[in-house]
């Protein structure tokens, strides 16, 4: 069965979305200012090489995620650091929503069923892993439903003080098992966890 991987940027104090929205806290905010080192860029691309399906929220797709990376794939066609952008274009995309009637994006399907049913059906299909990138609300819903097989947290060397987390079970917490941790020269640490 395929894995569902949640990939998120995170602050050193554990928040994936800071309380103050204008705070410049990420080493890479998905624009042209990309302060990741070569090893991190290489490893990031390696994750995408093992993925053939992207699971996206309606919000991130409507905010231009696919359009942005489609332009980047064309603009940086020969740049190996942007190989992931071409992977985003080529991968199957699935948007979980009942608010869109049809997809206007290439290789993108709308899934209108219950979240657990749709995700479990995707996991049973043949293929490589499924990656979800995006909003804290969407990631939290997947986490609460017990659908996530691996968390990849890109921990930026910034503390934001307050914000939102993907974990919300304050009564029992979320026990995790460390799969790996890699520190990079740029100050980023990537921590990979599976539910315990």
UniProtKB/TrEMBL annotation:
GO terms for biological process: riboflavin biosynthetic process. Residues 2-190 form the Bacterial bifunctional deaminase-reductase C-terminal domain. It holds the Pfam family RibD_C. Signal peptide: none annotated. It comes from the Bacteria. GO terms for molecular function: 5-amino-6-(5-phosphoribosylamino)uracil reductase activity. This is Dihydrofolate reductase.
